[in-house]
Design a protein that fits this description.
Helix content is about 45%, strand content about 5%. By secondary structure, it is mostly helical. It has 13 helices and 4 strands. The chain is globular. Helix 3 crosses helix 4. The chain has a two-stranded antiparallel sheet with strand order 1-4. A two-stranded antiparallel ribbon has the order 2-3. It starts with a helix and ends in a 9-residue tail after the last strand. The protein has 2 domains: about 150 residues, Orthogonal Bundle (Peroxidase, domain 1), CATH 1.10.520; about 140 residues, Peroxidase, domain 2 (Orthogonal Bundle).
Amino acid sequence: MDSYKHQTTLLLPLSLIIILFSSSASAQLRQNFYANICPDVENIVRQAVKTKFSQTFVTVPATIRLLFHDCLVSGCDASVIVASTPGNTAEKDHPDNLSLAGDGFDTVIKAKAAVDAVARCKNKVSCADILVMAARDVIALAGGPSYAVELGRLDGMTSTAASVQGNLPQPTFNLDQLNAMFARSGLNQIDMIALSACHTVGFSHCSRFANRIYNFSASNPVDPTLNRQYATQLQQMCPKNVDPQIAIDMDPTTPRKFDNAYFKNLQNGMGLFTSDQTLFTDSRSRPTVNTWASNSQLFDASFVQAMTKLGRVGVKTGRNGNIRFDCGRFN
């Protein structure tokens, strides 16, 4: 026993060193990280986000989606905001990111400017942390849960279009494909279903789901898992010869509210993407959908947990990152 205690005592400092210098770095994250650096940072960001929100509701889905596309590719390091240069095609110019709405980028850039306008905060807060705070704030503004965020990320020092390939879910994914992709970021099926509910706000384009209403299969031109009335409505909004970039609400019932209607829609066959509807049609995920459709508090709690875990993915610290003066370019 004494020998064991002695060994444990000797090992503790080493374990602390490993945590402090771990490249995974999520141990560095904590609430109120900027308390002694820029104590009012969360209020500054929140006010900037409110101003942007008052100008356009698109701020909400655009900012949430920007965070999602950032974290699943090389971690939560704001690398998706970096602009391409003649010598490098950045993440934002990969085909999977071309549909990211400009209002998401603008939200982060304006919040960063507001933070840097405060003398003691100038160049002290990362774009990655500002994006995490902004996403939390737009969710609350749209009626979703309010929650505390962990902060302490640095901004990434690389951004390449090649890194995006194969790291973002596609509208045609089934449950196995969704689970496999999220698992690579340390997120389980419950996390994946909770995060999928971000489709309760925002919009997509006709081209992203046209196969479900016109060319699903030789025997079923319309996906049989689609609610028939909903499928007819989608065909009316997206005729075959219409502009494929026409915007369609992801949530046909409460498109401007962050709520659990997403799951009720799935129960009624009104998931816009195959990757949405599969959460109900697959018996492995259906119980979670049913639970959250009937209990918004349980959904909110699970969503906050999933967002917290998402925010820990691929965090940069030490020499692996820095604080960008301009979120759109490297220092």
